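User: Here's a structure from my thesis project, written as structure tokens. My advisor, Dr. K., wants to see whether a designed sequence matches the one we expressed. Can you design one independently, without my sequence as a hint?
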């Protein structure tokens, strides 16, 4: 399987930007397995400074705790790749930014690192808006590292578009 094309990712980001701009909202992101790819796609859109506040790349557990306030107990009980951690990432982004909407992404892009319970391709994504509890999903994505990461970025963008629509 091929990764999600750059054109498709840019179209999703463009659509998201139009919706955010129309609402007067700012977006902030917290990424682990995608390593800033979501923020890169968003900032590739001209004028994104009107609706993108900031992005956090929190690859280590320590970064998730220090930068986003993810609880050590959450990481110990559920692991970095969990809906619980993704929800705390999304909530932490809102607390540490000027944004009204956020997304948190954590996953196992491979080729190693998977377990029987959390195989390679397991990606947890959470979305949050001010005043509401974050919600999350687990994606089981196939392919190699690049395919998994691009699909995670696309899923995060689609979720943001759905949330703001």
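Assistant: Designed independently from the structure alone:
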């Amino acid at each position: 399987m091929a990764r999600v094309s750059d054109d498709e990712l840019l179209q999703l980001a463009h659509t998201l930007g139009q919706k955010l701009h129309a609402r007067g909202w700012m977006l902030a992101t917290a990424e682990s397995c995608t390593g800033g790819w979501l923020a890169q796609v968003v900032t590739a859109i001209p004028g994104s400074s009107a609706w993108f506040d900031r992005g956090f790349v929190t690859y280590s557990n320590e970064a998730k705790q220090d930068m986003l306030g993810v609880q050590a107990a959450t990481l110990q009980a559920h692991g970095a790749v969990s809906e619980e951690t993704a929800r705390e990432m999304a909530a932490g982004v809102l607390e540490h930014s000027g944004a009204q909407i956020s997304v948190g992404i954590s996953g196992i892009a491979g080729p190693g690192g998977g377990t029987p319970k959390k195989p390679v391709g397991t990606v947890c994504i959470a979305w949050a808006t001010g005043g509401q509890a974050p919600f999350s999903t687990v994606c089981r994505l196939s392919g190699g590292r690049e395919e998994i990461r691009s699909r995670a970025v696309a899923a995060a963008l689609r979720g943001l578009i759905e949330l703001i629509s």
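When you compare it with your expressed construct, this may help: The chain has one domain: 6-164.
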